[in-house]
Structure formats: structure tokens, C-alpha cells
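A favour between colleagues. Tell me how you read the following sequence-structure pair.

===
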Amino acid sequence: MELEWRDLAFHREIGAVIEALDSAQFWTRLTRALERYVAFDNWVALRFTPGEAPLVCAESPTPDGAVDAMFQDYLAALYQLDPFYIAATDKPASGFVTLADVAPDNFSMTEYYQRYFRKNIVGDEVHFNYMIDARHTLAFSLGATQRYGERDLAVLALCAPWVIALLRQRLPYETFDSALLPPQFGETLTDSATPTQLPTDTPADTPAYAARFAQVASASGRAALTAREVEVAMLTLSGFSTRAIAEKLAISFETVRAHKKHIYTKLNVNSQSELFALFYDAGRQGG
């Protein structure tokens, strides 16, 4: 077996990653090993759990060392519109995942894409996912300002088996501190640091976004959204077209249209942009 100098460098990098499995340098060394072969601009390692904000293992530093405000918005609520989060919590599985694999048909037209994804990640994103169990997934994300080319995706897919194996080996050394998370939109804080009160008939286990919609409907004196209407609202904000929602929920196209009409009436909005503002802007201002 003959090895070129590039092969030797690769083996040295992998050795350094394995050596760092139990140290704080693991994620940095893993990214260095990958960036020899594919260019990317940001990275983050997260644990996804259905109905809960992602927990951060590690993330790429900002140029000035400041807190990334947009990423804090993601952790506070926008993760609920993230196609990678939705896919990982809806149908968890280990593997290499591209944006094209998980993005809904209208993703690029959503407010989430225009106001967060395009500004924060800009071009493209891929994930290496390790399914911990039925409720938890360890996700390692690589974001790029440009679209990944066919060669890039082929190289990353080729690396996936050993990257995912390393994620599995790394897991016992990770700690997840939910106390570091920003307030969720269902837990908006007032100036006195006291959670705002949701309508008294809101179930205790209501997801943050459903609680937010319930709060808005109650404040305007309108009926609360039904569980199905909340589901349709979130799928709409995530980028699913009316037809895609109908297929996903196994209901008719006209039924979805009726749900959307009821949602807009109850929340007193006239567009997806206004619906997004209720979900995002109002909650953000109260944080």
C-alpha cells in the first residue's frame, strides 16, 4: 500500500481527533481535520430533543469573541423552524444530511430563511447526525457562505462514517447545561424577571410556540388556535406549501386552506410575514 503525503497528513489529523476524544479540544480538532478537504465558515455541535431547545456542545467562535445574537435567537425559538431540527426530531436517524434532504418546498420563501438562515449561514448547511436514542440526536453542523459543490458533498459523505463514529465515542464526555439557554418564547420575562402569564386554560405541557399563539389570541379576545391549527401554522412558517402540508398531515388541500384562514382570523394577521412577527418579533422584544 503506497501513501502520498496528503494521506499521511490525513492519518495524523484523525489520530489527533481520536486523541482528543476526552478533551476540550475535540471539536476544534474535528473541524480542522474536515476543513483540510472542504471549505466551511461556521460549525456547531448540538443535541436535539423533540419539544425542547437544542443544547450546545460547542460552536465556532465569532471573530471578535462576542456573543452571537442571531444564534441566541435560534436557541430561544427559531430552532422550531429549522428543517434540520424538524427532521431530526420527527424521524431521528444517524447519517449525513444535506439541506436539500430536509428543506421544505417553500423554505427559501419563508421569513425564517430570509431573516435568519440567509443572514447567519448564507449559503448552505450539512449535518452529521448520531441518533443517541429515540428522543435525542447529537448533530454536528457545518455552515458555508456558498453552496457546497458536488465534490464537497461527496467528500463529506465519504467522511460521514468515521465522523458519526467519533460523535458516538465523544458522547460520554459531553455535558449539557440547560441553565445556559436563553428564555423560551413561552417563558418571556418582564422587567421584574417574572414569567408572563399565559391564559389559564393553556395546558402545562403546551410547546413554547403554541403557548405564544395562545397568549396572542387571548390578548386580542379571540378564540385560541386548535392543536391542528397550531400544527398548520408552524408548518407554514417552516416553509411547507399548502399542498405539502396536506400531504404531510394526510388531509385535503381545502382543509389546509380553511385552517390557514381560521389562523389568520384568530390571530388578526394578513400574511405569513405578520404571522412570523407574532412568533418571533413580539417574543423577542419581551426577552
Summary: The first strand starts at residue 42 and ends at 49. Strands lie at 42-49, 52-59, 95-98, 124-131, 137-144.
